Amino acid sequence: MTELTQQTYQPNSAVLTPPQPAQPNIAHETPRPEFSGDKKQEVFRIASELFRQGPDWVTFFREVLGVDGVARRLFETPEAYLAFEKSEQYTEIQQMLARLRGRNSSIPDDLEPTRVITVRLPKSLHESLRAEAHDRKTSMNKLCITKLLQVMDDELAPSK
Predict the structure, then answer these.
(1) In terms of residue numbers, what domain contains 91?
(2) How far apart are CA 71 and CA 96, in angstroms?
(3) What is the pLDDT of residues 47-95, one digit of tens each?
(4) Phi, psi torsion values for 120, nearest 5 degrees
(5) One domain, residues 72 and 29
(6) Which of 74, 89, 113 is the last residue of a domain?
(7) 32 in the same domain as 87
(8) pTM of the prediction?
(9) Model confidence over 105-151: pLDDT tens digits?
(10) How far is CA 85 from CA 49, 94, 128, 149, 150, in A?
(11) Based on the domain organization, do 100 and 126 belong to the same domain?
(12) Burial of 47 (0-12, 13-18, 19+ CB in 10 A)
């Protein structure tokens, strides 16, 4: 392992703004309008800086794409966020997330608690997921998380 991946992630206030007193969590600091420029580029810049710090994938997701992440704060409406999801910058952020997931998939519960959901699905879909996980030499859990992290096409999702 490199030194970068062995370090514990420490939020860095310089990711979002010019040097100032340290902030406890970069996701909760709002970029100043004169510093933000193009929103897609700003989110990508922040994600790139955070990626270089070598956090675990959960921290990266939370800080960049999570409910209180920088992307959700900059793209405040569902329509604006949906447009961001179709951008080249979003695709590159997803690739960063995938690389971080490949480094180490086990995240200590003290960094972020794990939640469990129950999903009811037809037996045939379950079998298909199980076969895909086997073919990819991964677990059902990792496969489902990977699929959940992907952008959903509104035309393919039922509205009711």
Answers:
(1) 3-113
(2) 15
(3) 999 999 999 999 999 999 999 999 999 999 999 999 999 999 999 999 9
(4) -90, 125
(5) yes
(6) 113
(7) yes
(8) 0.68
(9) 666 667 778 888 899 989 988 998 999 899 999 999 988 988 888 87
(10) 19, 10, 27, 11, 10
(11) no
(12) buried
